[in-house]
Amino acid sequence: MKKLILSMMALAAIATANAEELNATVENNNETTIEVAAPVETPAPEADTTEKNNWGAKLKASPFGFGLDLQTKYMWRGMEMMTEEAAPVLFPSFNYSYKGLFLYAMGGYAINGKYAEVDLGASYTWKGLTIGFNDYYYPTVDSNKDEYFCGGKHTGHWLEACITYAPEKIPVFATLSNFFAGADKYVNDNNEEKQAYSTYLEVGTYYDFLKGNRITATCGMALNKSCYNGYEKNFSVCNVELKYTYNVEFKSGWTLPLSAAYIYNPVYDKSYVNFTANIAF
Q1: Which is it for strands 101-110 and 116-126: parallel, antiparallel or unpaired?
Q2: What is the reported pTM?
Q3: CA-to-CA distance for 89 and 67, rounded, in angstroms?
Q4: What is the mean pLDDT of the chain?
């Protein structure tokens, strides 16, 4: 009887334990939360905020520039360009630059109307070496008969090839130029008009100060009978110059270079003091 009762009690205990385990399992299942992954949102495409011009091209810094220079007396390579009725000269200019390429157009006009000049040029600079071609045109200021493209034998153009070397780390420079075509002519002993091929060599050095101020010393030489010495000497020093440049700085960041130069021309034994203002944008 005791064994039966004990057996029944054991079975009851097992049943009770199984029931509790079952309830616990049910409760655990009820408490389990099924996590559902949130849907992945596809980002909206970014709006194109690139500024464009009226042709639909991306806006960028302009490669063009312009300027206006003023000289109290027009001096060039030691030569006095206005020997009569001299007056200050204005030089408006327009240019384009891309990497080492530089193109320009420049005019020269005396404020008294007694001088005019139109220049075009192209050059390319690579590691301090510049090769360029220039067309200097000198029309008459009191005649409508000048022909820019069809001047023929009596053209007012002076065509020049030049090369300049100015190393970045050494404060020296040298320029060699030659008028290879145009109005650079002289009359020989047989009364024949010949191309002169005037050749000019200029060497110089400079010393820099704070704020980009600079003093420059230059010596220019004519290497043959040329326009620089009246077609009379095979060699001559024609330009000795000492120039100081001072940069006026404005709060906007713009700089106005001003320079004063003492110039001596041994060929004609003449000296000058010249002031120049360079306005550039």
Answers
A1: antiparallel
A2: 0.79
A3: 14
A4: 86
